Amino acid sequence: MKIARFGLCLLVLLMVPGVVPVAHAHGLVGKCFLPATLAIDDPFVADELSLPTISHIKTPASSDSPATKETDIDAEFSKRLSPNLGITFEGSYKILDQEHDKTLDGFDNLGVTLKYVFFKNPEHQMLIAAGVGWDVGGTGSSEIGADSFDTVTPQIFWGKCLGDLPDQVEFLQPLVFTGVFGVSMPTRHGTKTVGVDETGAVDIHTTANPSIAHWGFTVQYDLYYLQSFVRDIGLRAPFNRMIPLVEFAMETPLDDPQTAGQTTGTINPGIIWFGRYVQIGLEAQIPVNERTGKNVGVLAQLHFYLDDIAPQIFTWTPFHGVLGPTFPR
Amino acid sequence: MASSARRFRDSVRTAILAVLLLVPVAAWAHAFPDHSEPRVGRTVDAAPSQVRIWFDGAIEPVFSTIRVENASGQRVDKGDGHVDAKDNTLLETNVQPGLAPGKYRVFWSVIARDGHRTEGDYPFRIK
Predict the structure, then answer these.
(1) What are the residue ranges in chain A where pLDDT is below 70?
(2) Whole-model pTM?
(3) Which of A53, A146, A245, B87 places its Cα 20 to 30 Å from the Cα of A270?
(4) pLDDT cut 90: percent of chain A above it
(5) Which one-letter DSSP state was computed for residue B33?
(6) Other Cβ atoms closer than 10 A to B111
(7) Residue A193: enclosing H or E segment and its boundaries?
(8) What is the pLDDT along chain B (127 residues), one digit of tens a residue?
């Protein structure tokens, strides 16, 4: 039933672009282009579709779960509501291949994020955005561990390109940094599980739902920027549109006595290629410590620039009307 | 398990179909520079008579501009920047004859056919 409900949500989301058009430039601040990153959210609001983002990594055994090969297949649709305000809907299908146990699969909870870019400086190629994420409890499958309660995550995003460095250090100008920090706050602090033990007595077990700090950053080297604005080093397609990068995606539980401060996460070296309508990304997922795992995973994404693919559709925003062809960006 | 896998396959098919329906709607995008003469950041032996930038897509003649400045910020182009009549991906301008050795910077701004604006600048040197 929940799968059908979630499938209906996804279908509605996929229909939205055809019903409600949008518009605007994505990922450009001054002459610096920032791609949509795979592991952490980028600071832009945009009209984009990630379909699919596929992640595969083996997680270690814990006290209450066996070692698991986890495969996530995500879809994410972002729409601009005004030039600086955007909304994102995200869904994920999980396949949990548990060691010495049955394979579980199902949809995770629907995620909704509202983001607002409140600072943008094209001259210094910098922007800052604030957002709030909502993990809609009960929309996913409890079999794969989707929470039955809502989780709210206030976040801050930033991006800075180094194109304003002096020409003496011109080869540093294509460097780009982005980052995110947020704290997910569950609306239920503990989940009670009622069972019967071997003696027939009722056993009530409470699992803590801690607040978790989600933080991360990316370091990128934009070969397009190098080639077009700094020095033509003779790169041709497809290399002149490649962005080698490393993403750091971390989580730190905050208020659970047993796990507080125990950071997990991955360091993801990889590459993004961007074209006129799509971008493709591929990264390795290297666990940052043994708590996260010992095996390297993989992360891949196909990403569509909806405002470039269909500008005549995506030229309308509910709070800013139609963005005309000479709208200052 | 089997039925949920089938439902998943159906969802993926639906998603792919939705994307395929969206993609052919149009073929426009931001115009990004592809290459230029003189080349970005390079040193040329002789003073050029023109500065030319090729983009990866068609650009609008009315809204596209190009200018060239010397190290002192003085304009050294002839103010006749234009999109080539035969090649709508080429933005070019003539520059004053006999430019002195030194560093120059090209400033450009273009609007792609869909209205997306991109802009930038780059240096080159004359030996």
Answers:
(1) 1-26, 315, 322-329
(2) 0.82
(3) A146
(4) 63
(5) E
(6) 22
(7) strand A190-196
(8) 445 556 555 655 555 555 444 443 333 467 889 999 999 999 999 999 999 999 988 898 888 999 999 999 999 999 999 999 999 999 999 999 999 999 999 999 998 876 678 889 999 999 9
The residue count for chain A:
329
Do B32 and A167 count as a contact with CB atoms less than 8 A apart? no
Q: Which two tokens stand for residue A104?
A: 């579980």
Q: At B81, phi and psi to the nearest 5?
A: -55, 140
Nearest-angstrom CA–CA distance, B11 and B4: 10
**∠ CA A259-A260-A263, rounded to 5°:** 80
**B18 contacts on A by Cβ (under 8 Å):** 14-15
**How many CB pairs below 8 A link A and B?**
115
B53 CB-near residues (< 8 Å, 6+ apart): B33, B35, B36, B66, B90, B91, B92, B106, B108
d(CA A186, CA A71): 24
If you ran DSSP here, which 8-state letter would residue A310 be given?
A: -
Strands B102-111 and B117-126: antiparallel
B127 CB burial (10 A radius; 0-12, 13-18, 19+): exposed
Residue A275 has phi, psi (to 5 degrees) of -110, -155
Nearest CA in chain A to B106: A229
Q: Percent helix, strand, coil in chain B (nearest 5)?
A: 20, 40, 40
Cα distance between residue B105 and residue B76, in whole Å: 10
- The pairs formed by A55-58 with CB atoms below 8 angstroms and a separation of 24 or more are A55/A285, A55/A297, A55/A298, A55/A299, A56/A297, A56/A298, A56/A299, A57/A266, A57/A285, A57/A287, A57/A293, A57/A295, A57/A296, A57/A297, A57/A298, A58/A293, A58/A294, A58/A295, A58/A297
Predicted local confidence at residue A9, as pLDDT? 42
Residues of B in contact with A224 (CB under 8 A): 32
Q: What is the pLDDT of residues A162-174, one digit of tens each?
A: 999 998 999 999 9
